[in-house]
Amino acid sequence: MIFARRSTTPSPAHAARLIGLGAYLPPKKVPNADFAARLDTTDEWIRTRIGIAERHIADPATATSDLAVEAGRRAMKSAQVEYVDAVILATATPDHHVPGTAPLVADQLGLPQVCAFDLGAGCSGFVYATTVAAGLIHAGTAGTVLVIGAEKMSAVVDPADRSTAPIFGDGAGAVVLTAGQADEPGALGPTAWGSEGKHADAICIPAGGSRRPSRTVDDLKNQYVHMKGNEVFRHAVRRITHVTQEAAAAAGWRIQDVDRLIVHQANARISAAVADALGIPPERVPANITHVGNTSAASIPLLLSHAAIDGRLKARQRVLVTSFGAGFTWAATTLLWPVDLQALV
Ligand code: COA
Model pTM? Predict the structure, then answer.
């Protein structure tokens, strides 16, 4: 029998520190032309209104856990750790309703008895999950935590719906967090976050849950994502702008001190409007939506990985990470970019 072990002897820490980063995209790329060929849309509309040229789509045999395992493995290799005390998986597209997907992922990663659970907060899920992980570390409950954001959005998007199908992509990203000091590179700062459930129907899969079980539904369309895109857009700009200001203030940063603003990749126009409202120049706002689309909870760790690899994130930069998603939910936190972090993609 394998008994649970700990990565370190946990003791209350002052901060959680980023020590590993990895991402995985399924190999198949789908260009806008594929949508234009079968839906009433164009490559130009998708590029100019959303900012997407292509997205990665998993093959039918691949589940969210498969994407999560690949990203988790890379983050652990990046951190040079073989063990963590907990695995938190942020996802809106779990493999099954029951059981949670995180225990499957932990098992596949050779972590058969660790605490492992899913966290659902839509596109804000990854920032929510890192905040929960930081709390576990801060309290001394865990020494090292693997946080993964992974989505197979193609499993829940109606291929015939032009207002959602071109937007979403599949993928996964992950970080390893461990105990550290608040002023050292890699340290996460305080999180500002919130939710507003009265807008639940703005991004929603109406059927398949306890409210409306699938067996009582004869309309397949209600088992796909429904989105009031324009309403989401307006709320996203307002909430992301505000929560970013809150997180900066909580960390004692001025907005002009932010070296890099990492915005959830929902729509290039949302990121631009937020940057404009905050007075942050576009060159400080890395993006990868053009090549990956909106990957929901995977979006932020994917962008962190890509920006780290191409040199847009550098040691000791002040990074502000901010997100908005279904619920509505929103969350933002600060991060001092680590020294010598090798992201693996
Ligand atoms: N191709 C062509 N036309 C499209 C289209 C497409 N792919 N998708 C929608 N349209 C049409 C609409 O049907 C509408 O037509 P109508 O005026 O004849 O009714 C028109 O474009 C404008 O629709 P609207 O929803 O106002 O467009 P928009 O500029 O707000 O862009 C989104 C739509 C979805 C791209 C945009 O609202 C968005 O990105 N929202 C945020 C979505 C999101 O990020 N969700 C994830 C959670 S964060």
Answer: 0.96
